[in-house]
Each structure stands twice: as C-alpha cells, then as structure tokens.
Amino acid sequence: MEIEEDKIIKGGEFLVKETKAEDVFIREEFGEEQMMMLSATVEFSEKEVKPHLMRFENKEYSLVEELMRKAGNLGLLAINVPEKYQGLGMGFNTGMLICEEISSLSGSIATAFGAHTGIGTLPILLYGNEEQKMYYLPKISSGEWMACYNLTEPDAGSDANSGKTKAVLTEDEKHYEITGQKIWISNAGFAHVFIVFARIENDKNITAFVFEKDKVEGLTLNPEEHKLGIRSSSTRQVFYNKVKVPTSAMLGKREEGFKIAMNALNVGRIKLGVAVTGASKRIINYAINYSNERKQFKTSISSFGAIQHKIAEMATKIYVADSANYRSGQNIENHIKRLEESGIDSQKAKLLGVQEYSIECAILKVFCSEVVQYVSDEAVQIYGGMGFSAESEVEAAYRDARISRIYEGTNEINRLLIVKMILKKGTTGEIDLMSSMKRVAKELLTLPTFENTSKGLFTEEKKVLNNLKKAVLLVAGSVSEKLGNKIATEQEVMMNIADMIIETYVLESALLKTEKLVMKNGEKNTAEQIAMCINFQHQSVEKISKNGKEALYAISEGDEQKILLLGLKRFTKINASNLKENRRLIAKKLIETNKYCF
Question: How confident is the model at residue 450 (pLDDT cuts 50, 70, 90)?
Fold first, then answer.
C-alpha cells in the first residue's frame, strides 16, 4: 500500500489535519495471505483453546505453557519476526490481526502471548546486536524458548526508571552481578529467556540485560500470584542475588534501558488495544447468543428494547475501537516501510515507525481497555443471575477484562502521556499545533456561519467532527497559556483534555472507515455502520463538552470563562437524531445474525 507524501498524517497530527477516507486502512482490506494466517489462528483458537476455557479458571499454568508452544509450532509467535531470524516477516498490521484472534477467548492466553511476542521479543529485535538477535530470536519465535520481561519493582511501577535493582561490574570486568527484586512478571514460571532492567552504579537511567535462566545462579522465583483474573497466566516475583551475567548480555547501550522499556511498551499498548477488542467481540457474541436463547414472558429477551439498547451500545463501541486499531496499525506499518525505503536500517525503522505513533498507541490502550470493561459488564447484566455464576463464560471474561486498564501503563498514566506528547510535538513544531490553537482562539471573535452547501455522506458529521477538534484546541490552548509549565501538576485537567483527544481520534476513525465501506458497498448495505457512527458522535459531543467545561472551570473565571464556555458551546453543537431507532436497527442485525457481524 503506497502512500503519497501529502497524504501522510504524522502521529498526533489528526488534531490539526483532515484525513480522507481513501487514505485509511480498514480490516476488510486485508489480503489473501493475511486471511489464510487468520484462518489458521481461528482454527487454533477453536480447537486448542475453546474446549479448555473452564480449565483456565483453575490455575492450570502448564496448560498455558503447552498452548503457547503449540502456537509457536504453527508460526503464530513469529508473525513480526524477520525471516532472517526464522520468523515469518509479516507486516505490523498483520501481527495486530493475529493478536486480536489469539487473544479473544482467554485473558490467560492473551497475557502470555502478549508478554512473549511483545515485551519478551521486541527489546531484542529492536535493540539487540546481530549476535544476540541471531542467537535468541529463532528459538523465541518458534516457541522453543519462552521469554519474560522484568521491569516492575515494589517501589517502581509507573515510575519505571526509579528501579533499585543493581548491576555491579565484577573485578575482572567480564561480568555484571545483578541484585534486586522484580514483581508481576508475566511468563516467569516457564520462561527460559529473561530480559531484566537494572541500574549500573549511580547512573541516571537503567540498563537492560538479556540472559538464559539455566545459565545463571542466584535467581529464585516466588510461588504463582493468586489474581482476580487471568488466573492461568504465570505471574511471579523474581529475586536476583548476585546473578552473574557476561558483559555481552547488555541489551543496547548502557543507560538505554528506560528508552528500551518505553518503546517496547508503545507496541504493547496498541497490541493490547487490539487484543481486548478481540475479547470484546467474543463477549458480545456470548451476550447475543444468550439473549436469543433466554426466554422470559414467553419471548426471547433479545426482543426487549432494554436488551437491544445494550447490544447496540456494545457493538457501537467495539466497531469504533476496531476502526481505530487498524487505521493506526497501518499508519505504523506504512511509516516503517517509508523509513526502510529511505535507506534507514530495518531495526531502526521499526523502532521509529512505532515511536512516531506513540500518541495513537496510548489512545488505543485507554479506549479499548475501557470498551472491554464496558462490554463485559453489560454482558454479565444481560445474563442476569447466570452472569454472576462461575459456570458462565462472561464471569471469567469480566474478571479478565479488569487488568487491561492497569498493565502496559495504567490508563491514568497513558492519559497524561497523550497530552504531554501532543503538547511536546506542538512546542517543537513537529505538528502545527500552536498556530492551530491561535486560529481557533481568533475564530471566537467572529460570527459563526450556519450555511453548509457541501453534499455527500457524513457532510454534517464531518462538520461536527471538525468543530470537536476546534473544541480540543480551544481548551488545550487555553490551559497551556494559563498554566504554562505547571500543566503537569494539574493532572485532573490533563485527563479532561486527554478524554477530549481520545474521543476525537476514535470518532474520526469510525467515520472514515464507514465512509470507505459506503464507497465499496453502498449506503443501503452499510446502514448499521452509519447508525453506529451517528450514535457514537452524539456520545462524543457530550463527553467532549463535559470534559471541556471541567477544564475551563478549573483555569478561568469571570468574563474570560464566559467567553471560553460560549466558544466551547459553539464547537459542541449537534443536530438531533433518533438514537433509539438507530440502536434498534443495529441490534436487529446482530440478533438476526446471532453474532457480532461488522
């Protein structure tokens, strides 16, 4: 998929630039090779994972290890590993597609898969030297060796660079002795390859190391943690007591550990977004099936308006998440290709490709993890008392969903990062944020125009979207001007702005996907998707208005506040629409097909 230079939207630039529908990627455009790989993954899930769903709730850690090795034999752990290292060398977005499917049935499998193929592989792929990559990657991608990532410590969670684990150079200068404690380490119980972060002497930043477990002494593991969800995913504390590793075990350069950790997490965030979207699709299928089968008052509960409301809302949020996931995934893949074609080394291109869209990665982590929580909660409600039973599929799904708002950086941390990264790009001139903010502020002094002569699909919706972007710029600009460098201390206001940004991005993604589907299939065959976009836009307007008001209340008063609030009101107007009938249309399609079908 070749992208012309003037069609490229940089990371975060969606706020100040318009994207055309023909320039975004949608999952319906995956080719034959990708769909064959997806079919193999579906077969694996249905044959190897689905029959054992209840066993995952009984803490059968060996089952997860067994299935991970089977996935490795099928090549499912090697999707994004280059062929040079015996991987399949497929594109970033293809990796997203496979991750979505394999993560859909069980949170335990999803966590093990994500930890192994993401943070357990990427630090080596992106920062390892050639010798390290040739040595580790073939066996990691085949599933012969499982990998784990040791970063979090008792006093170093969100503040990852504050870890106290030490690496001391031995007198002969041939080894480092690592001493410290790591917690919440996924796959630790069966991992052979350990990636660990430690501080050398009094360095400002941590350093990364990679080694094989059976080649060191002094490494011990606590018993498996007992967890609310993802019960069969191995999660242990790891203790290092003068664990001696050769100096050649250093991954990347000294003090590069924090950079390695953060860049691995960028990929982890977008992969988590697509993983929990896959889970959301599976959960809504349970809810639709149950509502069609469950009879009350001599009729299926799926015929009741209250149930249809729930099903339609669940589907709408999933559809929006799906639209944003593959739009972003392809943006990353295209950027990697552009960098490689410009002569940049493939390893560095992959690193920079994801780094460019780190804002979108954080957006998807937050939005999709909150969608799966919403969907699982509503599924339990549709099941009623049965949903509260440990015998039901949705009870486990509800518990598994909860961790997704915590790992890969809590949603609060990611919200703060979204605003921080966008403002930084604006300050450095990477995106034209500051002049856009000034134009919006100037627009407040002019009379609004109500004439709209343009025609076509989503004409009104695009106008609303454009105004919502102005609302974000108005509030973010006012807050930045008022608080300056103190903005970082006003976390509540930053989270208000983050929610405005998140809603804008995912709404635009859904509108663009739907417009592209209409071009392909016609309006009549895309009626439900159009209805989902209209309904979601109404929700976005409400959410952006609410968060904008809260932020402006916090930083302004008097006449200044009145003017800003009038501006916000001007940019958050939307025409009335019969949302109830839209929901009924959406639900009808889902109930008739007895599954999520978008």
Answer: low
Q: Are 332 and 357 in contact (CB under 8 A)?
A: yes
Which of the 8 DSSP states describes residue 115? I
Helix (H) / strand (E) element for 175: namely strand 175-186
Q: How far is CA 201 from CA 178, 180, 298, 358, 418, in A?
A: 11, 14, 73, 31, 33
With tokens 């702005």, the residue in question is: 497
Nearest-angstrom CA–CA distance, 253 and 269:
24
d(CA 304, CA 6): 49
Residue in this structure with the two tokens 């560095």, named with its chain if needed: 348
Using CA of residue 302, residue 303, residue 304, residue 309, what is the dihedral sign? positive
Ranges assigned E (strand) in 187-276: 193-200, 207-212, 219-221, 235-246, 250-251
Mean pLDDT of the chain: 95
Tokens of 522: 């016609």
With vertex at residue 455, the alpha carbon angle to CA 450 and CA 457, rounded to the nearest 5 degrees, is: 110
Share of the chain above pLDDT 90, in %: 92
Q: Is the pLDDT of residue 445 over 90?
A: no
Query: What residue has token string 């609310």?
Result: 228
Could you report the per-residue pLDDT of 535-556, keeping only the tens digit for each? 999 999 999 999 999 999 999 9
- Asked if pLDDT for residue 4 goes beyond 70, the answer is no
**Of 594, 495, 497, 539, whose CA–CA distance to 320 is shortest?**
539
Q: Residue 240 is encoded by which pair of tokens?
A: 């290092």
Say whether pLDDT at 1 is over 50.
no
* Separation CA 26–CA 513 (nearest Å): 6
Q: How far apart are CA 487 and CA 360, in angstroms?
A: 21
Tokens representing 270 are: 């977008």
Of the candidates 584, 590, 103, the residue with the CA atom closest to the CA atom of residue 368: 103
- Residues 113-152 have pLDDT tens digits of 999 999 999 999 999 999 999 999 999 999 999 999 999 9
Q: Which parts of 186-304 fold into alpha helices (H)?
A: 257-293
SS3 for 139?
helix
Question: Can you tell me the distance from the alpha carbon of 583 to that of 309, in angstroms, rounded to the nearest whole number?
Answer: 6
Predicted confidence at residue 451, as pLDDT, reads: 60
Q: How far apart are CA 420 and CA 415, in angstroms?
A: 9
Q: Considering only 95-109, 157-171, 289-303, 403-417, which range has the smallest mean pLDDT?
A: 157-171
Angle CA 246–250–253, to nearest 5 = 145
Q: Is the dihedral of CA 36, 37, 40, 46 positive or negative?
A: negative
CA distance 97 to 278: 9
Q: 365 pLDDT band (50/70/90 cuts)?
A: very high
- Cα-flanking dihedrals φ and ψ of residue 452, to 5°? -140, 100
User: How far is CA 482 from its chain centroid?
Assistant: 31
Residue written as token pair 């995106």: 431
**CA atoms of 23 and 42, how far apart (whole Å):** 29
Q: What is the mean pLDDT of residues 95-120?
A: 96
Contact assessment for residue 135 and residue 124, using Cβ atoms and an 8 Å cutoff: no
Side chain identity at 123, as an amino acid letter?
Answer: P
Just list the catalytic residues.
408
Look up residue 1 and give its two tokens.
Answer: 């998929």
Q: If DSSP codes are grouped into helix, strand and coil, which group holds residue 490?
A: coil
Q: Give the up-direction half-sphere exposure of residue 277: CA atoms within 13 A in the CB hemisphere.
A: 29
